[in-house]
Amino acid sequence: MRSMRLIVGLMLLCCVLVPLGALGAKERPVTGLVDNMLQSPSPAADFTLTDQHGAQFHMADTKGKVVLMSFIYTHCDDICPFVALKVKDAYQLLGSDARNVVFVLVTTDPKRDTPSVTAAYSRALGMFDVWHFVGGPADAVQAVWANYGIGVTVDSDTGAVATKESTGGAMEAEPTQGLSDADLAMAGKIIQEFSGGYDVGHSAPFWIVDTRGLIHVGMDADATPANIVTNVRALLKAR
Q1: Residue 171 pLDDT > 50, yes or no?
Q2: Distances (CA, A) of 130 to 52, 80, 119, 127, 194
Q3: Based on the number of CB atoms within 10 Å of its own CB, is 232 exposed (0-12), middle (13-18) or buried (19 or more)?
Q4: Residues 6 or more apart from 92 whose CB is under 8 A from it?
Q5: Which of 80, 94, 109, 153 could form a disulfide with 72 if both were Cys (CB 3.0 to 4.6 A apart)?
Q6: Mind listing the pLDDT tens digit for each residue in 181-209?
Q7: Structural domain boundaries in the chain
Q8: d(Cα 71, Cα 204) in Å, to the nearest integer?
Q9: pLDDT range class, residue 91, cuts 50, 70, 90
């Protein structure tokens, strides 16, 4: 792996999202959550981007389901393959519950992550028909980063996109936590096949959005698939 580490600390949602109380919404208590770094839920901003199928993905259309969301890019040789594999493992662990969950990955490298590239990456991970790996014009993707508290930096002028760095709580996570030896082998294959070019440093939280469209759970990149699933199921039960 390259010496450049990704920024993986969670952003403070109050800095980038409208507080729940400001909307007059009544918060529902949720029991059974683990490793949740958010004190209260906040509205998940709507957006429209293009997924690996070349189809438009509308965040607003996910209401009524739980959404598991994270942020990666395909050319990453650092934390991103492990984040992607945790999403895959969570999908598999959910079993039949997965039909009530939407899995979303937002690119942090819109210049290179075209639908054909995200499609190849999704197929390599066996997730082509499962998740939505979305991207689009730089300004549209940057707006999603801003609304979801994602700091992004590019280490080379060849990278066309750069935004403010993540503020507060930056740390180096243990991204392999909870992954099997088979997962680690798969990550190595993904890195070998897709990595290269300039590096993109970025926040890599797992946001879990409840069925009302509120970001109810924030987990760092070292979250295990099992704990992610525990939180997803807690929100499914709270519907």
Answers
A1: no
A2: 11, 18, 11, 5, 20
A3: buried
A4: none
A5: 80
A6: 999 999 999 999 999 999 999 999 999 99
A7: 13-237
A8: 6
A9: very high
Q: What residues contact residue 149 under an 8 Å CB cut-off, 6+ apart?
A: 10, 11, 12, 13, 15, 16, 17, 166, 203, 205
Distance separating the N- and C-terminal Cα atoms of the chain: 41
Question: What residue type is 97 in one-letter code?
Answer: D
Give phi and psi for 235, each to the nearest 5: -75, -35
Could you tell me the CA-to-CA distances from 56 to 50, 103, 115, 138, 227 in Å, in that order?
5, 15, 11, 16, 30
Rounded to an integer, what distance in angstroms lies between the CA atom of residue 6 and that of residue 200? 8
**Alpha carbons 177 and 83: distance in angstroms, whole number:** 10
d(CA 153, CA 116): 24
Name the β-bridge partners of 134. 106
The rounded mean pLDDT for the chain is 87
